[in-house]
Structure formats: structure tokens, C-alpha cells
């Protein structure tokens, strides 16, 4: 087991109603990086998420063929997502399920941007709406090494779904491991060639990629959950193909 984790650098993002923490260990975690997003204001993050999905600047930057392919899909999906962002709480005063899933996806992408200097790509639903549940990865980033990172996000209002057996949809680790085993990261290659730019896409062609395991945290000791998630991530065979693994825990603390 690794030594206990601790918080390193702290990044306050007032407009997001969030605080992002780098998580460190005195042990060498090799290619596994950890951070924690604490969300204190759901209305603020809902506003930021709404702004993000309505921002079509990424479409405008594409060449004509790609732009024509994405602009209608992106607008229709953005309209649907904005409706989700209007309901942050469920009837029992917990984070609403649909909103929570997007909060974990987009909040984790923002955390990687702030803590580790990643570039966030548009959420996958904007350019590839899911025809069925668990069709593929939820979000993507590009790290400073020009490597595309494939993010799987899991939300629960009662648990911390970081694990699961390979291919199982109950946890971020198992789902991501199953996706990599099924080469679902490669299936998005044509899309990512347009969105991530040439160097990251070429790295993907050469099997250089990263994986993000993102999940909600419901626990009194978030660092213990993150430590367990880190250790558990080492047990997945397909995730060993990734150059880097990022673990992002997202908690709501009002």
C-alpha cells in the first residue's frame, strides 16, 4: 500500500463555486495523478456548465466539413443539457442524478485543467450524442505532453463509485478498463483528430493515451477514498496500457 495521501496545492475557483486540490503522496505513484474537486455552490457550477455547453467557439474553429457535421448536433445537445442544469437538486434535497453525472464529468475536466494544466475538450455528448447508455467515454482532455486522456465519470448520491470489475458499469475503474479492452478509445479517433489537433491525435495513433477515472465522493474522509481508488486502479490490466492515469474525486459540500 502507498503512504497516506495529503493535499498539496489548492486552487480556489470562485465562479465555479469550487475548490480544486492537488493530492500528493510521499511514495512514488509513478504514472498515477490524483486531485479532488470540492463543490460548495451548485448554482454557480450549474451556471458555468451552462456557459460551457453554449460556447460554440470550438465548432467555429473547425474546417468547413467538420463544422457542418458538428454544429447542428452540438446545438441540439446543448439545449437538452441546459435543461438538465436547471435542476441541481432532487426531491430529497440531494444532488440530482442527471445533473450529478455532468457535474462529475465537466467538473473533473475543469479540475485537470486547473491542477495539472490540461486542455479540456468539449464534453463528448456535444459531438457524439449517446444512442445507448455506456456507449463510450464521457469526456476528454489533452495534457501538457500532447496526450489525449479519456475520462469515465460515475455519479452516486450515496457512494463513491471508483471501482467495479472490468466492463461493469457500476464504477469508473471497471467501466474504463472494459472500454480500453474493447478499443472504444480508438473508435473516437476520427472525431478527436478534429477536436484535439494533430500532435495529440498522432500520439493516439501510436497508442499513447491517458485515462481519467472520475467519480463522486460520499465519505467523511475523501483522502481515504482517493487512496483506495489509487490502489485499486493498479489492479486493472487494460488500464496498464495507458501512459498516465488521473484519478479525480468530486464531492459536494454545502
From TrEMBL:
It comes from the Bacteria. This is Uncharacterized protein. It comes from Flavobacterium chungangense.
